[in-house]
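User: Hi! I'm working on a homework problem where we have to compare a predicted structure to a textbook description. Could you give me the structure for the chain below?
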Amino acid sequence: MKTVRFFFFLFLFFSAGFTSFAQSGVPVSPQVNSINSADTVVFDLSHVTCSGSFALVPVYILSDDNVWALDFSFRFNLNKMTYHSLVNYTSYLSAAENFNSLDSLLRFSSNSFQQIDNNTVLVAIKFQLTSGRINSSDFSSMHVYLNGDPCSVKVIEALPGANVTTSGPAVLATGDSVSLIACSGPGFSYTWLPTGETTQTIVVADSGLYTVIVNDGNGCLSDFQLRVFRAVPLPVELITFEVNEAGESIQIDWSTSTELNNDFFTIERSNDMTSWNEVSRVKGAGTSAEINNYHLTDLHPFEGINYYRLIQTDFDGSGKWIGTGSAVYSGTRRTMSVFPNPAASRQIRIRVGEKNENTTVHIRIYSSMGLEILSKTVVCSGLFSNGIHLPEDLTPGIYLIILELGNETYSQQLILQ
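Assistant: Happy to help. Predicted structure tokens:
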């Protein structure tokens, strides 16, 4: 009987929208409730939890009535996030959701054979963020129902994002210093770049671009940048340092107003702000009093958040960290495929991702005993590589193909007949 009612619930949700069980003729409780504006569905942005680029928005109800069904719908900011899934924290709530890309509306409907808990998180809506942080302005056209009747909706605003104030002017004369003070909040933690300090307030005596990354205690990060200037010229005066996702890559752009004995720039990348790896070096302008613009493309970013820092090195070998930035990479890694597989002949072709024009890859093939059968570098001139000839005396069996593309490694089994 429970299975029949559940599928009847799904039919009502996807075919007729938000017709609740109380209105559909399915008995949910012998008690008559009076749902009104005093009953509320709460979307609590102050307790959003984050993991990488994903954010969970908790939902609960506040009601003085017995509640057996919860429905809601809303639109959200598609420029900032995409819908991923629904997390059900209860064992008794039968729930279903649907996101319709045609009308950009997320619909949720649920019912229970027992009274729904009050003032307890019932479900969470999981979004993948592509930029910024979630706040109340990202939601619109919100409609909520308890037991099939309209009620009130409340969106609790998100915790404040990163912000910085100063104890005085941010233009330093020789020997001066200034305090940079990050915003405060319960459970907040801080990481300052480029100093690496983790206190709410830092004291700086050097000019440059300072960034504070704030963790709000729920895993959600935000950052704020503040430039401190000096009254004396520096080897390099940085004007801008911008990091942006662009399809399958991260684009990094920066510009300088003056350069003095500047040999080169180094871009380093991290996904934890602890371990940094060099992405590339870009030649500097030496000595220049003109604006110079620089660009670099990172073709192999981490999935999720990427942190970048800009290091400037003089001709004498001395270097200084002068810029920081971050971007969320929401693209997906390429996939590897082998054709044909299984293979009757001793010639195969390899494909990595969607486009392989002039892509150079290194291939190693191992037997099931771990012996290296083949090691060679090939160039992909189309969707697939040119034909790869295997030794004619290979016996039928299962082989492992390892493909190396830059700092990425892929593997695929090959069955020879």
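For your comparison, note the following. The domain at 160-226 is CATH 2.60.40.10 (Immunoglobulin-like). The helical segments are 2-16, 21-24. Good luck with the assignment!
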